[in-house]
## 1
Amino acid sequence: MRKRHSIPRTVAFNKPYDVLPCFTDTEGRPTLADYIELSDVYAAGRLDRDSEGLLLLTSDGALAHRITDPQHHLPKVYLTQVERTPDESDLEQLREGVVLSGKRTRPALAHLLLKDPPLPPRPVPIRFRTHVPTAWLELTLHEGMNRQVRRMTAAVGHPTVRLVRMAIGPITLGDLQPGQWRELTQTEVAQLSYG
């Protein structure tokens, strides 16, 4: 049984590729427990096994709700590597929102990066196809539908091949390397809670 910690704790974690966003797995796959040895912190939101980057974990239930509830409009920033180079009309569709399962996504910020971002290489390289170039986009969303970024880019004809979350509200990945975590400061927690 996990021991309760009297003061709520919140940490930022750079989730590596192929790690499940939970602490246990009956199939023995890599989980958060392989990297984080804190009691009573749980992921505030999801980051799929095949996605990388910033994941916030907290023992504060109210804060977890604020982070995950789309009513709070907490922006989440992603870098997504997609097949082929989107043109302006593709980007405009992402900005206006696309229809996924009969529901239009909220307007997003979307722009094409002019050069590849300085990210650490993925332990399992993406599958390159020689005649299908890739491009990087920065997308900022204010909601968290299941696999939303991947579904949005696919809907406009540019499937995602790599996805890295860079920020949640005021908290950024910074210089955390894959598998590293740090405790948030009181100021950062206050910014998340009331910002």
Note: Residues 73-168 form a domain with the Alpha-Beta Plaits fold (CATH 3.30.70.1560).
## 2
Amino acid sequence: MSVLPIRRQTMVEGDIDLSKLERRLREPRTLINAALNWLVAGLTVLAMVPLFSVIFMLLWRGGQRLGIALFTELPPGAGMVGGGIGNALLGTVIMVGIATLLSVPVGILGGIYLAEFGPNTKTASVVRFAAKVLTGLPSVIAGVFVYALVVTTMGTFSALAGGVALSILMLPTIILTAEDAIRMVPHRMREAAIGMGCTQTQAILKVILPTARPGILTGVMLAVARAAGETAPLLFTALFSDYWIRRLHEPSASLAVIIYDFSGQPYPNLIEIAWAASLVLVLIVLGLNIAAQFYLRKSFTK
């Protein structure tokens, strides 16, 4: 019994030339491998240069205006000094909040239908096609659509119309990411839930959605980041305001529009405020992503 493994090992070592398996620095494949590794590393650093340069410029130019006044004062007029982005920050939070309330429930329900209830139906195919088309839709088209549907009906530009326009842009991203996240849940978890007596709805609510929560939340964060930085749809729906927002059916300022407007002005004070608003917008998106990751990590450690 003990002779067979020895004979098998001897035969294998006799058939293979172990010297050919040794790594030599002068071998062409070793040189090519090292060259490709250095090339990939260099391209990675090169791709990171624009990113870090933008972050550096935001911190350098926008960080000079960070302060309480930036968040509590209204935008200044042309040629004036001081001022802030308080109303634009509040308007952005309100409109993105409206868009999130409208798009997240519908998007998650759509993802559940596409992944669980009717994955191979014609309706699912149409929904997937429409969602993929909407992901590449120019944002200005969403603004024009909501302008014709909501603004003309209400007779005024409003924060509500801006939230509706942003929700249209968020919806396809949430639907597609929710479907992918739900599909990635192992099938044995579904079978285990059904085997324990759960209905399909109970299995989705108690097992599938909690398991797919990281992917769904990632899609929501991507959609929120896109909505927070959109300018074109807000020009057609919320327009702009120099005052604090008091009602949802009145025009409202936003960070994206104030950046677009002030960055093209010939006044240094307004340009500095545009840089500061850009930095605040980046910090908001970054903070939301960090908070989401912290929440997911904390929920998994319980």
Note: The chain has a mean pLDDT of 88.
